[in-house]
Amino acid sequence: MLGGPGLESVVDQIISVITNDGRNIVGVLKGFDQATNIILDESHERVYSTKEGVQQLVLGLYIIRGDNISVIGELDEELDAGLDLSELRAHPLKPVIH
Amino acid sequence: MLFFSYFKDLVGREVTVELKNDLAIRGTLHSVDQYLNIKLENTRVVDQEKFPHMLSVRNCFIRGSVVRYVQLPPEGVDIELLHDATRREARGG
């Protein structure tokens, strides 16, 4: 029985994190622990809006606390390169309600 | 323990996980752990127009605490087995 999240396979890869408050943060996973706290390097936040294209805010080296994390996705760089973020319009994600 | 064992038996099946922020992700169940954290492969968000936030993601880890529902294929459900396991769990717990 594995103790913590099986995130070894994505260490040093670019991941997309969805947080409980509905934010989307993209960065390189450098480390994690049993509580799914993570260290994200070269990170930026992607802000979605219905009025303008996706805004990217540079953040740098971050630690995100595990209890604020909803989803950790492995970003497919090929697929991501094919996206035109300036044309993407969407409502921001809703916050998690327990 | 019951649901952990149950999900382990469902590995390889197509499931749809609905989260507490209303996001729904469809994918193949790759693995589950003691916290019922779920790893899905070959993922697609159910309403891609409304939720384009994960268009470039094909494999993901979903924290158990944020799952609202896990939608299963009916063929994946053995009701008798579940009843027996529940009775055993109720007796033991």
From TrEMBL, chain A:
Residues 2-78 form the Sm domain. SMART domains: Sm. One of its GO terms (molecular function) is mRNA binding. It is found in: Nucleus. Its main location: nucleus. GO terms for cellular component: precatalytic spliceosome; U4/U6 x U5 tri-snRNP complex; U6 snRNP. Keywords: mRNA processing, mRNA splicing, Nucleus, Ribonucleoprotein, RNA-binding, Spliceosome. The keyword Ion transport does not apply. Signal peptide: none annotated. Coiled coil: none annotated. It holds the Pfam family LSM. SUPFAM superfamilies: Sm-like ribonucleoproteins. One of its GO terms (biological process) is mRNA splicing, via spliceosome. Plays role in pre-mRNA splicing as component of the U4/U6-U5 tri-snRNP complex that is involved in spliceosome assembly, and as component of the precatalytic spliceosome (spliceosome B complex). The heptameric LSM2-8 complex binds specifically to the 3'-terminal U-tract of U6 snRNA. LSm subunits form a heteromer with a doughnut shape. Belongs to the snRNP Sm proteins family. PANTHER family: LSM1 (PTHR15588), U6 SNRNA-ASSOCIATED SM-LIKE PROTEIN LSM8 (PTHR15588:SF9). This is U6 snRNA-associated Sm-like protein LSm8. It comes from Cynara cardunculus var. scolymus (Globe artichoke).
Automatic annotation (TrEMBL), chain B:
It comes from the Eukaryota. This is Uncharacterized protein. It comes from Arctium lappa (Greater burdock). The lineage of its organism: Eukaryota, Viridiplantae, Streptophyta, Embryophyta, Tracheophyta.
